[in-house]
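Lecture notes, unit on protein representations.

Consider one protein chain, 218 amino acids long.
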Amino acid sequence: MLQEQIRDLTGRLVAYARLVEGMIEASTLALVSRDAAPLDEVTGASERRANELEVELDAAATVVIAQFQPKARDLRTVLMVLGITNDLERLADHAVNIAEAVRWLLANSQYPTPPSVPAISAAAVRMIDDAIAAFIAGDAALARKVCEADQAVDDMADGILREVVAGMACDPKAIEAGLQVLRIAGNLERIADLATNIGEDVVYMVEGRVIKHHQEMP
């Protein structure tokens, strides 16, 4: 019975992650296509469902702990579900932040989309997907790959910063639009950071090793 409950929790966690990934992708696609229609879903029904799933998963995991008093790996798994659920809620908030910035840009500016924005979005979503897969499979090697991918996202975000700041210096009228682009890049960078946190926690769960701050500790 406990294993069935854990499988149910992890299945619902995967569904939550897919919802959040879709929110991120839809927000970025809206910017690239210059079509605001997907943004209403992100900041409306999807955001509400993300909040509901957080509450539902938190309650379900708490019930499992109270009823079954899991131990060892089972307890670590349930506690990880609780932690990842919190991370996913924060990821959904970042997706909404991106959607709001994109909506402003589409309504107020013809500022060109930096080519690396879709690449950062795709990389960040892939990191979330791999982090969840690593947790489900107990795959520390895949979790490490998630952590290693964070640097590439940071580098792309730094590139956008340099590009936007240079554009602002040349055209002061582009400052407000540039700030919205930086808001998008910053939220994507924080999404990658949260995926990295999940990857680090998976390594600790599987191997008992702390790899935060790129340092391994026994």
